[in-house]
Amino acid sequence: MIEVDLAIVGAGLAGCALTHCLGRSGFAGRTLLIEAGRGPGGRASSRRHRGDPNWRLDHGAPALNFTAAPQGALAELLQPLLDQGVLVKEQRPLVWLDGEAQRIDGPPQGLSYAGAPAMASLAEALLAQAPERHQSVFGCRLRSLEYSSGRWQLANTERTELFAAQRLVLTGTLLAHPRSLAMLAWGEPPLRSAVPSGADPQLDAALQAIARIEASVRWNLMLALPAAEIRDLPRQILLNPAAQERWAIERLVLQPQSDGRLGLVVHGLDDGQSITPESQPVLLRHHEQRLRSALPEVLRAWPELQRALEQAESHGVMRWGAAVPTAGGLPPELQWCSKSAVGFAGDWIKGPGYGCGEGALRSAMALAEQLKLA
Ligand SMILES: Cc1cc2nc3c(=O)[nH]c(=O)nc-3n(C[C@H](O)[C@H](O)[C@H](O)COP(=O)(O)OP(=O)(O)OC[C@H]3O[C@@H](n4cnc5c(N)ncnc54)[C@H](O)[C@@H]3O)c2cc1C
What we know:
- The chain is of the alpha+beta class and 374 residues long.
- The protein starts with a strand and ends with a helix.
- The chain is 28% helix and 32% strand.
- A hairpin with a 2-residue loop joins strand 11 and strand 12.
- Bound molecules: flavin-adenine dinucleotide.
């Protein structure tokens, strides 16, 4: 069993930024980052393709958006990433489509950055500055949490991986939100089972707020298009409400590869069908089919892209379970529940940049401050 002072669950932007901030401040305790995926990034990660070493596709967030020019502590966090060239200001345009697939003027482009060469580079770079006594474990999905005598015990489903920590931070909502009950057929949310109701009023309030968070689902189709000369290639093609209604697509993201090929990610909207382990394979096939068949029409304004589509290779569909929090949010004053020594970070904490990468980073910075003081 690995035993540490602080265990952080999730190596998305929030978990990596928290680890980074603790490293930068000289946090002396032993820290452990546990992640279900194979590498860091979470919803801002990049998909590789077996047997294709150069292929990298931002299959989740294609950008890091900011509500205003980063200042103060946020600017300090980002400056080294800009200096290293892993964070770059997005120069390529966003374009908008209407319900007839015609290009239209959209709202002014906000402040947008991207990871270079891919979005996963951001989390990787943040993690590079971890506290001295830090360990990361990938490919481990935690299922069970127990808290007794001031000590957290964490385990995966098979209980083959066990960890103990004095303090715990959750960055995803999987272990705390009732949503996991339907998809994974779990009983109570594991965090609720670990600390019974009434034992820590602050945690009770936090769990109630977390349960109220609503989130949207995305079905992202990933395509590899052959190398082609395409003029004025936008980074993103956003669909206005009429177009979203017609094709159930939120946007298309275009990502040139180092060898000239083009990655295309179609962000498909959900239609509310119930997602269970049994229905998921059918739904994946359904969304792949419907997104592929909509593309020639949606891309009418780009004949070169339409032609390239004929030779597109599908890399399948990725389902993002809680893609973007749409309502609710955890109030920042409930981020750290001292009695049960558990805290929260992620884009679902209320504040500037809620629901976006900015919110994930800000929440991590705020929690790092609290942990240093605790
Ligand atoms: C399709 C899509 C498009 C987006 N577009 C944009 C955009 O254009 N601009 C923007 O700024 N933001 C965008 N976002 C939002 C952005 O991706 C998120 O705000 C940000 O990545 C959230 O980071 P996080 O660390 O809070 O959460 P996550 O990235 O979700 O990290 C949580 C991590 O915890 C891990 N985890 C959860 N439960 C467990 C467990 N039980 N055991 C082990 N590990 C666990 C997960 O695997 C995950 O890696 C988009 C998101 C999606 C899905």
